[in-house]
Structures are given as structure tokens and as C-alpha cells.
Amino acid sequence: VRPLTEIEKRKERHLRLSLDENVQSDIGTGFGDVRLIHRALPEIDLDEIDTETDLFGKRLASPLIVSAITGGTGFAKEINSTLAEVAEELGLGIGVGSQRIALEDPGVEHTFTVVREKAPSSLVMGNIGCPQLSIGWGVEEAKRCIDMIGADALGIHMNPLQEAVQLGGDTRYSGVLEKIKAITGELGTPVVMKETGAGISREVAVSLEAAGVSALEVSGVGGTSWAAVEHHIAKVEGKKSQEALGEALWNWGIPTAISVVEVSGSTDLKIIASGGLRTGVEMAKAIALGADAVGIAKPFLEKAVEGKGALLEHVNDILREFRTVMFLVGARNVEELKKVPVVVLGRTSEWLRLRGYDLQSLANRG
Ligand SMILES: Cc1cc2nc3c(=O)[nH]c(=O)nc-3n(C[C@H](O)[C@H](O)[C@H](O)COP(=O)(O)O)c2cc1C
């Protein structure tokens, strides 16, 4: 067995650290402030509820996606294999982790292609990062990512917070929007711009829509914090100033529920809600707020490490909750769920009102 390369070591460390250390943001997603209105007379049968939805030309049995996590090492391949088997079995979408490592070393492509092998009919999303675009990668590399796994869409991650806290991180972000425009113009495959735990604002969403992207994955604050992950790495490395920076920015960003309202209210893009989504109740709230689907990363990673059975059980619990909430608000299908009234309270409402959103109409629609 050959020794791990630097990038493989980093990938392995991200996995181990996010499994072993506290990397949870300690401010909420905002979904605690979001309430759906209970219907004592749903006037539908639980059995008739249909959770199917279409995304990027693929049918999802439920609007749930395994968000981008990993690839590139033996451990990552095992995880990807388990995630993909469950995605295929339950009709979920699935994203792979950053494919940069496989573009640089085609010898590790098999750690990504296992996803398509195990999930032949699923919606599969590729992944590349904005930092690679700013160092000169473009349409050609994007196409290689898509071809590698037969991707139905390409995720491009935005992670300025992580790169800023990371030791030797790549913080060149100027000119990235132009690069994205060039890629969407030539690619012919939908591009999903995704954050990685700090959320997307209305202003950025509008500029990305103008740049021709198809969808946004908000990945807001409330779940896995990449400032926290890089804080732990800096600590191990004895780099005091980066360690402190990670701590200072642990909770930086836009809470997920707020980000969903901001981006869905200002664009016609498809929206994936992610960042701290943990339950089927929150999943229903996210869709009622304007998301088309929901993405979950860290809890699925943890269960995949336990094994396929544990992951299946966990996802099934989430889906049972989701379906039950649909019943309790009288939504027969996902389209009806998108139209139910939503009451937004507390700090989340304060933010949204200051940003000009009409929460009164949202609470009284339908
Ligand atoms: C170990 C780990 C690795 C990740 N790697 C990537 C990645 O390569 N590309 C990416 O776009 N997002 C990556 N993410 C971010 C997730 O897709 C997601 O946006 C974020 O973790 C928030 O979701 P969560 O709170 O459900 O974990 C990673 C997350 C974890 C936990």
C-alpha cells in the first residue's frame, strides 16, 4: 500500500474530524422559529400521500438528497458505496464530494464511480470547488467530473469561510462569477451552486441566476461548521492564529431557514435546503418555505459508517416524519406542501422583516 498523498491525508482528516470532534454550529438553523399550521381535519388519507418529485429530469421518491461528502480514499469509497446503495433503494438523490482529487489523480476515480455503480438510476451530482475555478479550471474539468460518474448535475461549492480559516487555504475568489458564466454557457448539464455551511444570500442568488446556473443548495448555518473543522485541524497543527480564527467564525453565516426564504423569494432557481437539516419535520418546513428538496450530510455520514442497516433505518425515520407532517397539514403531494401557510416567529422573523419579506402573507396564504 502506497502512503497517502497530501490531499488524501486532508480528505481523510476531514472525515475523521467531523466524526470524532464537535463541528456543530451552536446557533440554530432558524427552523425552530418556523411553524406549520396543524389541520385537525386534514381531509386526506395518510395512505394517499405522494412524496415524489422531479429534479433535473430525474424522479425522486422523496425530495431528499445525500449532500456532497467525500471521495478519494479507501475509507471514502466505502462510505460512498453505502450512501449510494441507500439512495438507490429509497429513491433519493446523491452528491459526491469534491472530485478535484480524482482529476489530479485518475487512480482514485473508482472511489467516486462506485456511486454511479451502486445507484444506477438515482439523481447523481458531481462536485468541484470555486477555488479550482479561480486557478484556471473550467469547462473541460467540469465535463470530466460529469463524465466520470454520469452525473445528472454538477455541484460547484462555494467555501470562502473554510478556505480563509484553513492553513494555506485558497482564498482567491475574484473573477469566479465570470468563470461560472462560461461554464453554464457551454456545459449542457445543470449547475448547482452550493455553499458548505454558511448560506447563500438573496444578492448572491440573483447574480448566480444571471450567470445561468440552474439551482442553489443553500447549506446555511445550523449544522456542520467548516470553521470548526479547520479550527480543529489548526489546533492539531499548533497554529494558534488559525485556531482562534476558526473559533471566532464558528457560527458565521446565514441560518438555513433564512437562506431558503431569501433565495427562493428572489429567483426562479431550483432550491435545495441544507445545513443542519436533521428531521422530517424540518424537511417539511423547508419545502413549505420554498425549497424543492432537502440535503443532509453529516448525519448520513455517521450512519453510513455504522453500516447500511443503520443508514436505511435513519432515512426511513426521517421520511416517516416527513410524510406524517404532510398528512397533518393536509398536503397530498409536494406541490401542495409548497403552498401551505407558514408562520415565522422570533429572530428569524426579525431578520426577514428587516430584509423586506412579507411574512403576513406567508402566514395567511392558501
Ligand atoms: C466530512 C464532510 C465533507 C464534505 N465535503 C464536501 C465537499 O467535498 N464538497 C461540498 O460541496 N460539500 C462538502 N461538504 C458539505 C456538505 O455537503 C454540507 O453542505 C454541509 O456539511 C452542511 O450540511 P450538514 O449540516 O447536514 O452536514 C462536506 C461535509 C462533510 C461533513
Q: Could you explain the architecture of this structure?
A:
- This protein has helices spanning about 5-20, 75-90, 100-105, 110-120, 130-135, 140-150, 160-165, 175-185, 200-210, 225-235, 240-250, 255-265, 280-290, 300-305, 310-330, 335, 345-355, 360-365; strands at about 35, 55, 60, 65, 95, 125-130, 155, 190-195, 215, 270-275, 295, 340-345.
- By secondary structure, the chain is an alpha/beta fold.
- The protein starts with 5 loop residues before the first helix and ends with a helix.
- The model has no long low-confidence stretch (mean pLDDT about 95).
- Bound molecules: flavin mononucleotide.
- Flavin mononucleotide binds near residues 70, 155 and 197.
The oligomeric state of the chains shown is single chain
How many extended strands? 12
Unreliable spans: none
Structural class: alpha/beta
Estimate the mean pLDDT confidence: 97
- The total of helices stands at 18
> Which ions and ligands are bound to the chains?
flavin mononucleotide
Helix/strand order, N-terminal first: HEEEEHEHHEHHEHHEHEHHHEHEHHHEHH
Give the helix proportion (percent range).
40-55%
Largest sheet: 8 strands, parallel, barrel
Evaluate the radius of gyration: 20 Å
Q: Which strand order do you get reading across the main beta sheet?
A: 4-5-6-7-8-9-10-11
Shape: globular
The proportion of strand residues reads: 5-15%
Q: Separation of termini? A: 61 Å
